[in-house]
Design brief:
Immunoglobulin-like; 448 residues; single chain; 41% strand; elongated; 3 domains; 4 helices
């Protein structure tokens, strides 16, 4: 390499290194310490939040009435609280835009790490509309003078204190049945044994027999109304019965009608001496089974003969306390041109009447007191799983007794014969409704 080339190469190397040299040569000292010039604390306003809400109206939590408890879990976030006026006097409750004053209970759940939790419980919520809770501005203030903002929380719960209104209709269907429809002005809860008729506003059920009783319909909020089921035209299953209690019997009663009511109207002491019954329609006539307790003047181990049918009736249980008879037994008769089952017999209180194995005629003074007749009865249905039979007896000077059903014996005492009876066949789902209705008249002289 010649001298000239070498000098040119050194010149370019020098020019290239000059920037790096000046980068380091201008810094005389390196500082490793940091200094705080000022300290600034940034504070937020107190915050009130609703974390959750619960309702004792189980299954229908978006609806409530004055009987339900509404509980809200509320959180206040603030580490430096100076004033806390979160109490029943400062929070406000609204139904739609109407301010109400319900029962308010506030319980402290916890207070730690700058968070306070409360349970706010509301009861006796009056009015109708959407429930909301308002936290006014300034009920919580921190040590720097900052206050919470106004907040309104919509719970999404509809308060409803109005019972549902309804209309009803009976529609005849095939096979002599009836469809009963209950139309309401609002959504209804299900009823066992009933179906929704296209919407939750309408309930329906098919009936085979005439019947009359009330049911309760309930809206989502828990308000109830009483609606009467009044089936008049269904004839698919018919139960006919006649009660012979000393009055002339010209026709059968049926499906819940009072048989022997004239004795009640007259306050008569006359007693039921025999009951005659049969079934008609889409049911076997021998499905009805029965037994009675027959209280007679002659006492145990005696038997007498019915003055009209010549059927034998006996003191005590017939056929026994554990067995049953039906229309296929020897107690079947033709009455009012219908083959029927007879229970008991006519002649219990006839002057001079006597039993067949003891020739002891009834004295006139005894006969006039009407002391004897049927004092207990039990009825049941054979091979009818969908239906129940319900019955109630009336005892002179006592009134109507508690309703019985499906084989239970009904009696006040075996030495207290009854004067009137009513019987009905109903779907099993409706049994309790009918029994509860008939039981309203216990120990009264009610006549429909």
């Amino acid at each position: 390499m010649n001298k000239k080339v070498f000098i040119i190469l050194l010149f370019f190397i020098f020019i290239f290194l000059i920037p790096f040299y000046y980068q380091f040569s201008f810094c005389k000292y390196i500082f490793n310490d940091c200094f705080i010039c000022t300290k600034i604390q940034i504070d937020k306003k107190p915050l009130i939040e609703v974390l959750g809400i619960s309702n004792t109206n189980t299954g229908y939590e978006k609806y409530a009435n004055s009987t339900h408890l509404i509980s809200l879990r509320v959180k206040i976030t603030e580490k430096n609280i100076a004033i806390n006026n979160f109490n029943r006097d400062t929070i406000q409750i609204f139904i739609n835009n109407t301010h109400i004053i319900p029962s308010i209970n506030i319980g402290l759940i916890s207070n730690k790490n700058g968070e306070i939790l409360y349970d706010v419980i509301l009861l006796n919520l009056t009015g109708n509309g959407i429930l909301s809770i308002v936290f006014p501005e300034g009920i919580v203030e921190d040590s720097f003078g900052l206050k919470n903002d106004f907040q309104k929380f919509d719970t999404g719960i509809l308060i409803d204190n109005i019972s549902p209104n309804s209309t009803c209709e009976e529609l005849s269907t095939e096979n002599n049945k009836s469809q009963y429809i209950v139309h309401s002005n609002e959504n209804l809860r299900p009823i066992n044994g009933w179906d929704f008729n296209y919407t939750d506003f309408s309930l329906s059920k098919t009936f085979s027999s005439p019947v009359y009783y009330p049911i309760s319909i309930t809206d989502y909020a828990g308000n109830t109304s009483e609606v009467f089921v009044d089936i008049k035209h269904a004839k698919n299953i018919m139960l006919y019965y006649a009660n012979h209690n000393g009055y002339i019997t010209k026709s059968f009663d049926s499906n819940g009608q009072i048989s022997g009511k004239q004795a009640i109207l007259d306050s008569s002491s006359k007693k039921s001496e025999r009951i005659i019954t049969h079934l008609d329609g889409d049911i076997k006539n021998d499905s009805l089974q029965a037994r009675v307790f027959d209280y007679t003047y002659w006492g145990e181990n005696t038997r007498a003969i019915c003055n009209s049918s010549k059927i034998v009736y006996t003191y005590g249980y017939y056929p026994s306390s554990t067995t049953w008879i039906d229309i296929t037994s020897r107690n079947s008769i033709r009455f009012l041109n219908k083959i029927s089952l007879q229970l008991g017999g006519y002649g219990h209180n006839a002057t001079g009447n006597s039993c067949s194995n003891y020739k002891t005629p009834i004295p006139k003074e005894i006969a006039e007191q009407n002391l004897y007749g049927l004092s207990g009865i039990a009825l049941k249905l054979k091979d009818c799983e969908e239906y129940s039979i319900v019955y109630q007896i009336y005892v002179h000077s006592i009134g109507w007794l508690k309703t019985s059903s499906d084989g239970e014996e009904t009696t006040y005492a075996h030495n207290k014969p009854f004067s009137a009876i009513r019987i009905n066949i109903v779907p099993k789902s409706e049994k309790s409704h009918l029994m509860n209705y008939w039981n309203r008249v216990i120990y009264t002289n009610y006549v429909e």
